Amino acid sequence: IELEPVKLLSREDHLEHTLAIERRRIRLGYEQVFQNLMQESNKEGDHFSSFEEEDAVSTDLTHVQSIELVQPPHANHHGNTFGGQIMAWMETVASISASRLCRSYPVLKSVNMFKFWGPSFVGDRLVFNAIVNNTFQNSVEVGVRVEAFNCEEWIKDQARHINSAFLIFNTVNDKGELLTFPRIKP
């Protein structure tokens, strides 16, 4: 489908259009960063032999689970949980996961592939599972999955997958220099 060109009538239209172009440029930049990270990872040689390294850390040590109860201050007037609240809880659990690996305070660099798969409501229990997926020279990727349960679903252990995301963290020393992460064993 061919769309009609955007007609910029006011200064606000020009400003919004410029901001949208910049947001697109940043999104495309993240794709390039991801491709660069994958190429960097591939250059390191045979992955399977590197997983056998004795100094590699098991990702089991980075698994973190947190449970939150959605209360009225966490939701809008329809009873739906605020997306920002879920993102904040996801960042907290991912940060704890990354800190188990780096033994430092990780700094959130980016949030990638954040998806809302379904809603959650006041009274739901949200289960957050985070684990380190991979480490790179100066960054670590943590995957987070969020499942929701109402009271009946909780008793029957029937989860609703509502969110997923990959969060990228760095760590810095007192001088602001990036620290290197240890290798991991998936």
TrEMBL record:
Q: In which pathway does it act?
A: Lipid metabolism; fatty acid metabolism
Q: Where in the cell is it found?
A: Cytoplasm
GO annotation, cellular component aspect: cytosol
Query: Record keywords: Lipid metabolism included?
Result: yes
**What CDD domains does the record tag this protein with?**
BFIT_BACH
Q: Which UniProt keywords apply?
A: Cytoplasm, Fatty acid metabolism, Hydrolase, Lipid metabolism, Repeat, Serine esterase
Do you know which PANTHER family this protein is assigned to? Answer: ACETYL-COENZYME A THIOESTERASE, ACYL COENZYME A THIOESTER HYDROLASE
Protein name in UniProt:
ACO12 thioesterase
Origin organism is: Jacana jacana
